[in-house]
UniProtKB/TrEMBL annotation:
<dbReference type="Pfam" id="PF00089">
    <property type="entry name" value="Trypsin"/>
</dbReference>
<keyword id="KW-0812">Transmembrane</keyword>
<keyword id="KW-0645">Protease</keyword>
<dbReference type="InterPro" id="IPR001314">
    <property type="entry name" value="Peptidase_S1A"/>
</dbReference>
<keyword id="KW-1133">Transmembrane helix</keyword>
<dbReference type="InterPro" id="IPR001254">
    <property type="entry name" value="Trypsin_dom"/>
</dbReference>
<feature type="transmembrane region" description="Helical">
    <location>
        <begin position="262"/>
        <end position="284"/>
    </location>
</feature>
<feature type="transmembrane region" description="Helical">
    <location>
        <begin position="232"/>
        <end position="250"/>
    </location>
</feature>
<dbReference type="InterPro" id="IPR043504">
    <property type="entry name" value="Peptidase_S1_PA_chymotrypsin"/>
</dbReference>
<keyword id="KW-0472">Membrane</keyword>
<keyword id="KW-0720">Serine protease</keyword>
<dbReference type="InterPro" id="IPR009003">
    <property type="entry name" value="Peptidase_S1_PA"/>
</dbReference>
<feature type="domain" description="Peptidase S1">
    <location>
        <begin position="32"/>
        <end position="288"/>
    </location>
</feature>
<dbReference type="InterPro" id="IPR033116">
    <property type="entry name" value="TRYPSIN_SER"/>
</dbReference>
<protein>
    <recommendedName>
        <fullName>Peptidase S1 domain-containing protein</fullName>
    </recommendedName>
</protein>
<dbReference type="InterPro" id="IPR018114">
    <property type="entry name" value="TRYPSIN_HIS"/>
</dbReference>
<dbReference type="GO" id="GO:0006508">
    <property type="term" value="P:proteolysis"/>
</dbReference>
Amino acid sequence: YRKQYLSASCYCLHSACGIRPLVKNHHRVRRVIEGNTPEPGSWPWMASIQLLYKDGYGSACGGVLLSNRWVVTAAHCLSDLKRYRHLARIVLGARDLTQLGPETQIRTIKQWIQHEDFDHKTHKNDIALIRLNYPVKFSDYIQPACLPPKSSNVYKMDDCHIAGWGLLNEKLTTMLQEATVELIDRKRCNSSDWYNGGIHDDNLCAGYEQGGPDVCMGDSGGPLMCKRKKAGIYYVVGIVSWGGLCGQPHSNGVYTSCSYCAVHVLSAVQGIGYILQVFPLVLLMPYL
C-alpha cells in the first residue's frame, strides 16, 4: 500500500449535521440485546458494512456517515474488508436489511484510512475511515452525523443511545436495534474488578454497571450518540470497539472516543475535499 500523512483541524464535515427529518419525539428505551426497533429514519447516519456470504449479503460491522462520501468505523472491522474487499458494500438509509426499499442507497469502498497506531491486541486507536465509491444523496433517511468538539465535556451529556445490527438472541439481527445507555466513569470502568487497566485515554465506557442494554458482536464500528436532555442534536461521541460478555455486569461496551481522536480535518487530494482526520493516519489505497 501507499502511505500518505494528513493534518488540519475542525469538528464536522458538513455544514448541516445531526439532522433527523423524520423524528419528532424520541423516547428513552432500555433494550438492545432484547431488541427495540427504532422508527424509520431515527438514526439517518447509520451505515451497515456488509460482506457477501454464501447465503447473500450480511452486516459485518456498523459505521457512521460523516459526509456524502465518508463513513467512519472501527479499524478492526477492516481486517476482513482487506481480504474480501471485492465482496464488500456499504448500505445507508436502511432499517430492515432484508427489505432494502427505495430510501436505501448502496455504495462500494473506494479506499480506506486506518489509524497508523491501531493495535490489534489492545484495540487502542480503533478507528478508520471509508471513502465511498460514489457520493450519497442526503434525504429524510440519510444524513451526516455531528462529531463533538474536542473541548466538549462528553460526561455532561446525559441522554445517550446506541444502535446496530449486532447479535440478538445469539443471532445477527437484520432489523436495526437501539437502546439507551449511560456513560460510565473511565476510572471506574478501568478498575481491578472491571477491565483492570484495559481502558485507554482514547476510550469511553457506556452501558450499565450491573448489566443491561449493551452492544454485542456485529455492532463494532457503530455509534455511541449523546446529547444533553434539553439539546436538540446528538453527537456521535464514540465508535463501538470492544467489550466483555454482552449485557453482563462489569462487561459493558468500550468505544473509541471521537472527541479524543477526531480533532483534525484535511484536504486530502483534489476532488475529495475536507474529511475527518484522526491523528496521524495511514491512507490505504490498494485498488485506486
